[in-house]
């Protein structure tokens, strides 16, 4: 049952915690899902949260711990002994979650906790998982899975599955292996339900199964699961032996993180932050791109300095500097974002760069003509000087063309050199386009003011 | 098996299609997943695609049709008779996909296709689904599910499930209902595997099941599935009767679309576009925000016009206009994006607005002091006039404070009035901050130039 955390509820809970009234708190949290308790935790202060955590049974505590934000989790773990972490928490987690939590501990602490785990097989699986890079299929997968041998029949398989199923929370697929543990295929539970009890597994399995290798990057895993609408995906090692499985809920997190990373880059934020992070972390995440902008601004000031004499004679030139710079920035961000999104969705083929540029050029011409035409009308209406009128419209058109092509090229080039193309969105692109835009504006201005 | 669409492969395929060599094309596509065929389709021209489509068996054709982009799907359907659409395609689709495809047809065409469906029960389910708003749980759900009565035992349930399972592709959960079809709980297949054959379902079911109503908005459905790590979610009607189920793969699409929408808004793009869309559509999606920027630029030009006399005397003031405007824009986008992302992730509570503003204020002070300090040093080093030096640094600090608070407030206010807060990112926020930023700059400039 999902619950809503009203202000009243939190006030009541907070009061009961202050009175250290364990029974009331436990009753209040009855029927709460671990995800709700984790959300609740963020609403409490540190002492209240610690008290709350001590009231949870081991299994719930383990689930809540996984759901917490990393900073909160670190705070909870700091106050617990390695023995409690090992036997009450880690032993109650799936291997993938256990490896994630252990990966966040210091090396000493990790060793201590590992040495205190009671279930040796579980500990071994966790150690295996810790060896994979966290951004690969190996780092995402869990060891808990149901597997049967292709040489078994349905009855034997169901008997063996009953044993294995105790370890596994939810069963979506059964993986079929041969005697050397090589992945041969999958068996849907539906098929198992529908088949006679003496059928051989090798006759029932679906053999053209999609799998990834332990070293497949998580972004690629996400793309495969999205593309083929998969709920679970087996992971094999270099020679094809079944190593683990990835479920879609972990991939949803990967998709969300990828989207957030691109969003933060276009917004000019340089590390993954939450609004709940500390002031210092928020500041640090925002400063780098502001400094890029500042450096750009200084360069722009020097470009304008070259035209100081012109500005002294025609100060009206200054009126439309922000318009030119802003349009260059807006167009550049639009163009680069379309490329970045297209590369992420794989709707852009790098082989078609030329066609892409041609299309971008056409769009830029249409938008450029529209905006330049509007500004021409405006300046004629307000009776600006002819030189200014022509300068603004000609510069606007040129700047839109330049910013479009630049905004398209740079992320494509970055992608070609295996750099994240999203770096070329946001402040980087607006800053470089400001610079070029104003250079174009003043150069065109010199020509028109000389002519007219 | 996943395949890679190499240029060579596509060339070979394209040639075989041109020769209308059906056998070669069919052999080339053997083992291709429908998602791969759909991807292939986008690489072919219209005639080639049409030919390819005619070679697919009905079930594959139905799957490929669902995987296509909406424009491609419309093009394919345009050339097919209502009879073929009904009996070869729609009859082979799950109800949710069938309803999506039918929802894209004109009303006349839809009626025609519906009247030609052979499976009456299937048709009835599709008509039911068509009545729901597409952005709600009802619009996302499918009717295919496995349900058992709480009064049955395991043997009866398995027998009934075998009948139902023929209709359902993958079975992840069994839903338990009472005699009035009210949802009572879920039963995992694992539980069914582990239980004795005479156990009563009512003793096995998990009763605290998370469900949504047919009118729950899809964004909320996505949040619930993400929060509770669900793979499938039952949907009930107003009085709690089981109406359908939503699977995570459909929600992955919702999550992706939400993320893309926010990304396109911050990039200043006003409708959902793909790089493969036509020039006209790409232009139309980009023009609105460029016009907002242009209007802002004109207003800015009038603000600067108020200070024309000052500029004539101190043209150096113009040097740092772009720096001030760009910083205001960058800071505003950063602040607004943090709010928009926090609201989407539900990590921001609207009740804590004041605390949020205070934090933002602290971050802005730190960043403001850093940038103002750097500019002070720079201007002293390059021996700018004292008036300009102080003006730039004081204005920069004020502008950063203003842009931070404005960028935080506006999306929060929009959200309060149920307007999409993401509208306040991108060009809107940069334009308003340009305007205010330059007003602040020139006003401060007047003071310092009068004093020094």
Helix content class of chain A: 55-70%
Summed up, the domain count of chain A is: 3
**Gyration radius of chain A, in Å:** 30 Å
Distance between the termini of chain A: 75 Å
Q: Outline the low-pLDDT stretches of chain A.
A: none
CATH class of the largest domain in chain A reads: Mainly Alpha
Q: If you consult CATH, what is the topology of the largest domain in chain A?
A: Tetracycline Repressor, domain 2
Average pLDDT rating of chain A: 89
Name the assembly state.
homodimer
Helices and strands of chain A, in order, run as HHHHHHHHHHHEHEEHHEHEEHHHHHHH
CATH homologous superfamily label of the largest domain in chain A = SLC41 divalent cation transporters, integral membrane domain
Q: Give the CATH architecture of the largest domain in chain A.
A: Orthogonal Bundle
Q: How would you sum up the global shape of chain A?
A: elongated
In total, the number of strands of chain A is 6
Strand content of chain A: 5-15%
Give the biggest sheet of chain A.
3 strands, mixed
Largest interface: A-B, 119 and 118 residues
Structural class determined from secondary elements of chain A: mainly alpha
- Strand order in space, largest sheet of chain A: 1-2-3
Task: Write a concise keyword list for the protein shown above.
65% helix, MgtE N-terminal fold, three-stranded mixed β-sheet, Tetracycline Repressor, domain 2, 22 helices, mainly alpha, 3 domains, 452 residues, 6% strand, elongated, CBS-domain, homodimer
């Amino acid at each position: 049952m999902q619950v809503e955390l009203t202000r009243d509820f939190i006030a009541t809970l907070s009061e009961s915690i202050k009175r250290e009234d364990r029974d009331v708190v436990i009753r209040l949290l009855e029927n709460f899902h671990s995800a709700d308790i984790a959300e609740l935790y963020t609403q409490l202060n540190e002492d209240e949260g610690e008290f709350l955590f001590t009231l949870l049974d081991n299994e719930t505590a383990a689930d809540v711990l996984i759901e917490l934000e990393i900073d909160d989790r670190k705070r909870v773990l700091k106050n617990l002994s390695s023995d409690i972490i090992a036997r009450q928490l880690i032993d109650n987690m799936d291997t993938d979650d256990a490896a994630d939590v252990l990966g966040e501990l210091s090396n000493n602490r990790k060793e201590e906790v590992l040495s205190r785990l009671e279930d040796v097989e579980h500990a071994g699986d966790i150690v295996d998982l810790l060896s994979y890079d966290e951004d690969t299929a190996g780092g995402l997968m869990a060891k808990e899975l149901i597997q049967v041998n292709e040489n078994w029949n349905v009855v034997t398989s169901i008997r063996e599955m009953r044993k294995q199923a105790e370890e596994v929370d939810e069963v979506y697929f059964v993986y079929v292996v041969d005697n050397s543990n090589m992945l041969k295929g999958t068996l849907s539970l539906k098929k198992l339900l529908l088949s006679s009890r003496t059928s051989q597994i090798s006759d029932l399995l679906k053999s053209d199964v999609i799998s990834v290798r332990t070293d497949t990057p998580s972004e690629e895993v996400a793309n495969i699961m999205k593309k083929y609408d998969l709920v679970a995906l087996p992971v094999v090692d270099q020679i094809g032996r079944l190593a683990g499985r990835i479920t879609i809920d972990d991939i949803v997190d990967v998709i969300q993180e990828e989207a957030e990373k691109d969003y933060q880059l276009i917004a000019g934020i340089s590390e993954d932050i939450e609004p709940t992070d500390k002031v210092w972390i928020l500041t640090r995440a925002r400063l780098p791109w502001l400094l890029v902008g500042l450096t750009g601004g200084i360069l722009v000031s020097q470009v304008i300095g070259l035209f100081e004499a012109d500005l002294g004679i025609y100060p009206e030139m200054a009126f439309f500097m922000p318009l030119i710079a802003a349009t260059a920035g807006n167009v550049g961000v639009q163009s680069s974002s379309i490329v970045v999104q297209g590369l992420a969705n794989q709707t852009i083929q790098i082989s078609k760069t030329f066609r892409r540029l041609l299309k971008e050029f056409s769009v830029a011409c249409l938008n450029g003509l529209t905006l330049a035409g509007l500004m021409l009308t405006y300046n004629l209406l307000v009776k600006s000087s002819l030189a200014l009128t022509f300068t603004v419209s000609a510069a606007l058109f040129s700047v839109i063309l330049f910013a479009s092509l630049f905004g398209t090229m740079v992320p494509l080039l970055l992608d070609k050199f295996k750099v994240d193309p999203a770096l070329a969105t946001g402040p980087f692109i607006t800053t470089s386009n400001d610079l070029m835009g104003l250079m174009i504006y003043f150069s065109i201005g010199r020509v028109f003011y000389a002519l007219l």
